[in-house]
Amino acid sequence: MMRWSVFIVIQCLIILMLIGVFYSHQNHMILLKEPPTSLSQWYKPQNKRQVWLHTMFRLRRETLAIEIYALSKDDKNLRKWMEKLSKDYREIKEMVPEWEARLDLAVINELQANVNDKRYEEVIQSLLELDKNCEACHTDFRTVTASLYRAPDFSNIKIDGSTSLKLHMRTMSKQVNQIKIAYMDGKQDTALTAYRQLEKEMNRLGDTCSTCHKDSSQSYPNDLMISAMSDLEQSLKTGTIKDQGKALGTLAVMVCADCHGTHRLAYDVKELLGKSENWRELLKHNF
C-alpha cells in the first residue's frame, strides 16, 4: 500500500511540475500545429511541380466557378466544375492521409446532391459550409506550412564559393556601422574606406542574388542603390553630419532593410519552425 502511495505522489509531483513549466512560459510561448511530414513530398525540393500548391489553387478556382454558375443557373457548367471539385477535394486524403479525418466529405456529398437536383440556393449554402472546412485547416496549418516549405533556404549559400552568406551579411552590417562611427567621430578617411569596402561586398552579394533573380536588369545593387551609394560617397566628402546620416539611412533601407523584410524574416521563421526543441531546451530558457 505504501508503494502505491509513493507512486501516486510522484505522479502528482510530475504533473504539477509540468503545469508549472507551462504556466511560467505562458506569456512567452506561441503554440503552433505542425503539419504532417507527408506534406513535404508535395513541395520543393522533393516535388518540382509544387503539386500541393496547384491543388489548392484549383480548389479555389473550382469553388468560385461553382458559385458563379449556381448564381447564373448554368447547369451544364455547374456540373462540370462540381466534378472537378469533388475529384480534387477527395484527392487530399491520398496526398496527406493524416488529414483524412479533417475532410468534410458529408458537405461535398451534400453539395453534389444539390448540384444534381438543381437546388441553386442550397449549392451556395453548401459552398459556405465547405469554406468553413477549408478555413479551419488554413488557420491551423497554412502559415506554418508556407514558412517551412515555401520560404527560401540560405543555409548552404556561399559567396565566391568560400564565405557563407551569413558571415558575409555580418561583414556588411559591420561596414555600415563603421561608416556611421567614423563620420560621427570626424574620421573622413576611415569612413570612405569602410564605404568602399561596403561597395565591394555589395557587388559580391549581387552575383549571388542573380542566381535566383534572373531578370534582365541587375537586381542587386540596382540603379537606385547605386545612385544612393553615390550620394553617400559625396556626402561623406562634403556633407554635414546630418547630410551623412540621411544618406546612410536611405542607403541602409534600400540595401539591407527592404531585402531583409522579404528574405530574412521568412528564412528566420523557417529555421525556427524547423528546429526540434526538447524538454531540456524548454526548461533552461530564461525570459
Describe this structure in words.
This protein has 287 residues and is mainly alpha-helical. The protein folds into 3 domains: 1-31; 37-149; 158-274. Helix content is 71%, strand content 1%. It has helices at 2-24, 51-71, 75-95, 105-116, 120-149, 165-184, 188-209, 223-238, 241-273, 279-284; strands at 158-159, 163-164. The chain has a two-stranded antiparallel sheet. Strand 1 (158-159) and strand 2 (163-164) form a beta hairpin. The two termini are 42 Å apart.
Whole-angstrom Rg: 28 Å
N/C terminus separation: 42 Å
Number of helical regions: 10
Number of domains: 3
Inertia-based shape: extended
Note the main sheet. 2 strands, antiparallel
Q: How many runs of DSSP E, i.e. beta strands?
A: 2
Relative strand content: under 5%
Instruction: Give the rounded overall mean pLDDT.
Output: 86
In helices, the fraction of residues equals: over 70%
